[in-house]
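Reply to thread "Modeling small-molecule complexes from scratch"

Following up on the discussion above, here's a worked example others can learn from. I took a protein sequence and the SMILES for nicotinamide-adenine-dinucleotide and predicted the complex. Inputs first:
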Amino acid sequence: MPTYKIGVIGAGRPWRTEGATGFGMSHRHWAAFKATGKAELAAVCDLIPERAQAYAQDHNPAAAIFTDYRKMMAEAKPDFVCVSLWPHLHANTVCDVAPFKPKGILCEKPMDVDWDAALRMHETCKANGVPLMINHQRRYNKPFGEAKRLLDSGAVGKLLRLEGGWHNFQDSGTHLIDMLFNFAGDADAEWVLAQADARGGRKVFGALQESHGIITWRFKTGVRATYFAGKDYADLGCLIRITGETGVIEINEKGAPWVRMRKEGGAWENPDTGGEGIHDNAAIDRGVADFIEAVEQKRPAVLGSQNALRPTEVIFAAYESALRRVRIDLPLPPGPSALRKLAAEQGVEF
Ligand SMILES: NC(=O)c1ccc[n+]([C@@H]2O[C@H](COP(=O)([O-])OP(=O)(O)OC[C@H]3O[C@@H](n4cnc5c(N)ncnc54)[C@H](O)[C@@H]3O)[C@@H](O)[C@H]2O)c1
């Protein structure tokens, strides 16, 4: 069995531990690579050397420590690289790392804070022959997986409509919107119509999130989707509702039963989701295992950037639609996020 050298960029501190500035997602990334039994932690890079040292202490004291990721790439030559930085750093870092041609790069969600940056990171990786995974790991949480299995098995008939709601567009929203694409079979979107209110919004991992918003779009398959963001997202009555020709599937956020389904004229049923909720880290293990297998088999990974681009395009098209007050037909031309101008018009600092 091969042993892959793993390099981590952005050590952070584990969530809710002393000195944490976020979730320390890179700790979860390493746990997922380790779980494959095919990986050794070779190098850790953080601007704050003590964080990289503490990370190595936690996971492999022999790992090399860096404060400059280019130096890490040149000297440690990792096979897989985990980028666990705040969103505005994602594209630049991935584009700097790709020319070193690792076997693969895992980058955290969201792709970036600008649409042109998201496209650039995808294209640069493609041009360098480097598979890029974006951590929309929730596709691998069992409640979502079971809902998808039921939908694909025809349990509620042909898919007609998808609805979802969460806190914002780009942070939790990127997971939810990615999930709607997952249920829609990763079909392309045709157009997007949206509104967003940045007033009262807050920065999450340094990226401005609107306080309230709504996006509706049409897939090229004819399926319609609507996504609600803001404090009242729960008014939807569930996290995601999947409406088919002969029934409905709902995924809830608060606890078991996570999934319920009602066929036309019938009562609600609660399909088994294996005792796992929608936040379980086992999803990251599964996403990384598929990524490594995809690299070995030279096929696209489920969480590959080719799939992450679609929800990302909808999010940036939504800001464009909100700013210009028109329907945006896709593809969305490359450019910076319209949230900058929208926020400025609304008197909010980006
Ligand atoms: N997939 C998920 O469920 C999930 C959950 C939480 C966070 N995230 C995402 O993970 C990403 C990272 O968040 P986090 O919570 O791990 O952050 P964090 O604050 O815990 O860690 C980031 C680390 O990056 C370091 N850093 C900053 N610039 C650097 C540079 N140029 N070179 C090297 N190190 C640098 C910082 O010093 C810090 O230690 C964010 O994009 C966030 O949206 C994803």
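What I'd highlight from this example: The pocket of nicotinamide-adenine-dinucleotide is lined by residues 9-12, 21-25, 45-48, 51, 69, 84-87, 89, 108-109, 135, 137, 171, 205 (CB under 6 Å). The CA atoms of residues 193 and 326 lie 7 Å apart. Questions welcome below.
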